[in-house]
Please model this.
Amino acid sequence: MAVSLSRAGGPWALVLAVLGGAAWGLCFGPEAVTIAPWMALVPLFLLLGAGRRQAVWLAYVHGVAFWLTSMSWIAPTMETYGQLPSWLAVVMWILLGLYLGTFTGVFGWLGEPLWRRGGWPALAGLPALWVAVEWLRAHYLMNGFPWNLAAYAWTEMPGALPLAAWSGAYGVSFVLAIANVAIALMLVHRHWRTGVVSLLGCFLLLAAAGRFGTDAHEPRVPGLPVRLLQPNITNLVTWDEELVRQNYSRVLEMSRKACDLPGALVVWPESAAWPFSYDRDARLREDLETLVAAGCPILFNSTTEKEGFFYNSVLLLGPKGLAGRYHKRHLVPFGEYVPMGRWVPFLDKLARNAGNFRPGRELLLLPWRQELLGAAVCFEVVFPFEVADAVQQGATLLVTVTNDAWYGDTAAPWQHYRAARFRAAESRRYLMRAAITGVSALIAPDGSVVSELGVGEEGVIGGEVVARRDLSPYTRAPWLIPLLCVLLAGFAILRSRGARRS
Model:
């Protein structure tokens, strides 16, 4: 049915590609969904039956529609904070969608023979290929861009987060893709038995992961108190000295009230101390020392300078002084640095600090009491391997600070937040997330939310965290699922092409 429709009715196939990509993009909106992701990718797989050249083109259109829909917040962000003209912001948004769509086009190019072959090459090979392309995007696009992995559409799906402790987000993407391929095979190839068995297997796997796979039993030790600040300070488009003073005073006052229990760790979000720098401004150092003297160590974000280079850093200040600092290693392209800046100098940075940031070169854990904090600044938390590396190196707790005020009340803060929940579940670690305008949250080792402040809210999240030193199956070998998917996809493609020649 879909094969003949795609070949005979080109315009209808194009409409299906656009609407299918947009529908898949809507699965990453502000409101989490659970049912739609089971079938939202079906149109893409149906379009693979359009023939070799058409499949590549239609898959590319599907990918462009997906990225333009799921990242519609790009244009207003560039216009407001990048101070680009409206037309140029829209052009940049479209260009980004056109570029990211090439990954889906590659999927269509390699996946078309798998769909045509049917059977196990389609059912197992296509999901494996999907994960391989996701992994490729995470490593080879402007230093990596693992945003909106398919797994994140299933954040609220029972069993998905516990499954991530075993397979990581890539494994959850694999299962989601299997479910969609199974439905597509039933619609086109009439593989009813295979489709039903595959869907039942997905349901049973998620159910088993939810029932037996969490393994989030905490050690029988007292919890450690933490306080996460969300001051709800929006980014300034123009300089306003009085407003800057008020914002800074608000953060200090919130910190004083948050220190209601001596020894509680107070976590500031990214940019909370702006425009002050810990290395340059004595006022910030004195204010922080006064707060710490009240009995609470403070983890905060600040621009730091070393050998003439600027870093986006997280610092931990305790009663004995500066306990440690971590320099952000994965910078935001066109925000904290400009890729190919020599060729695109007209693109101003969205970051607040003048001049390009330099990425940190090593992983540094922050000591707090007898524990080690694995820190991630903003964009870094979307990288599964980065967080797994911190846990392998000894992080017993995770913390991420971010400034998502750039994106306003859009889907972007929630997309970012869902990635953080997967990092907690993958590592089986408590994760503290402090966002300047939301979403801030205390996330349990199974990825569930202990406490949360949404976008635009102001307040302090108080709670306790329990450190863990065991390694989840995923953290022991985070490379395993992507590697297996690359091998499986490669084997399926070779077999399908070999069968075609025969």
The domain at 224-471 is CATH 3.60.110.10 (Nitrilase/N-carbamoyl-D-aminoacid amidohydrolase). The mean pLDDT is 90. The chain has 15 helices and twelve strands.
